[in-house]
Design goal:
Helix 1 packs across helix 9 and helix 4 runs parallel beside helix 6. The chain contains nine helices and seven strands. The protein starts with 8 loop residues before the first strand and ends in a 7-residue tail after the last strand. By secondary structure, it is of the alpha/beta class. The longest helix has 25 residues. Strand 1, helix 1 and strand 2 form a beta-alpha-beta unit. The chain is globular, with a radius of gyration of 17 Å. The chain has one domain: NAD(P)-binding Rossmann-like Domain (Rossmann fold), CATH 3.40.50. Helix content is 42%, strand content 14%. It has a seven-stranded parallel β-sheet, with helices on both faces.
């Protein structure tokens, strides 16, 4: 399907693997000019994967999302941005029966990456955008339901959904829309290694449409739609792609 995104300048924060890399592939195949970022050197391997596909040559930038100066320096190198996809995030355990300093630090760093870091990327992207610009955050169904032993992650994704609504109001007068996609339980490398099999099976049982862990590529169409002209009048909203997990 052609979403009319040819030659659009697209930056995908956290585009080195999983859902982020699939989003990057989707925009690449639409003819967009894609730049992916990550704090991991694997971002350059992902760049090579993208450049093996048809389309314009993808760029890659490595920076630490929690370092404000690194984020600012990276965005200073960019020209016009038509679409920013804030996909970066971590999914770490923060058990409620663990009052250790380590658990405290994990909770705080998770908020720093998933909320503060992505917020600052949006702030740095705005000066590069014009009327019609799009900012799309990756949230999670944990931002709607909560998640056992993952209160830090759930808090961060609730925060993302609140931030989307606030930024939509702030940036609307500039003609920039801000929306989110909430992926349901997906067969990403992170989930397959972090979630016990029993939790994966429970997630599948709660799906009412074609039960089974979602493939990361299953989410791509929602991002392409939100970046397209068809979504020109949508802002402050969330698309949930979860096969009905949250309708139960």
């Amino acid at each position: 399907m052609d979403f009319g995104l040819k030659d659009r300048q697209v930056v995908i924060v956290g585009g080195n693997r999983g859902i982020g890399l699939e989003i990057a592939k989707g925009f690449q195949l639409q003819g967009s000019k894609v730049t992916i970022t990550s704090e991991h050197p694997s971002v350059f391997e992902a760049q090579a994967t993208l450049n093996a596909l048809p389309g314009l040559k993808a760029e890659a930038i490595q920076f630490d999302l929690t370092d404000r100066e690194q984020v600012s320096a990276a965005f200073a190198k960019l020209g016009q941005i038509d679409v920013l996809v804030n996909n970066s995030g971590v999914f770490w355990d923060t058990p409620s029966n663990d009052r250790s300093a380590k658990n405290y630090d994990v909770f705080a760093k998770q908020l720093m990456i998933n909320v503060v870091g992505t917020w600052w990327c949006a702030m740095e992207a705005v000066p590069h955008m014009k009327d019609g610009g799009r900012i799309i955050f990756t949230a999670s169904i944990s931002g709607r339901l909560g998640s056992p032993n993952h209160s830090g992650y759930a808090a961060s994704k609730h925060g993302v959904l609140g931030m989307v609504k606030s930024l939509a109001k702030d940036l609307g007068p500039l003609g920039i829309s801000v929306n989110a996609v909430c992926p349901g339980s997906s067969a990403t490398e992170t989930n397959l290694h972090s979630l016990p099999l029993a939790r994966q099976e429970l997630a599948v049982r709660n799906m009412v449409l074609h039960p089974g862990l979602l493939d990361p590529a299953d989410h791509v169409g929602s991002y392409l739609f939100l970046a397209s002209a068809a979504a020109a009048h949508i802002t402050g909203q969330t698309i949930t792609v979860d096969r009905g997990q949250t309708c139960i």
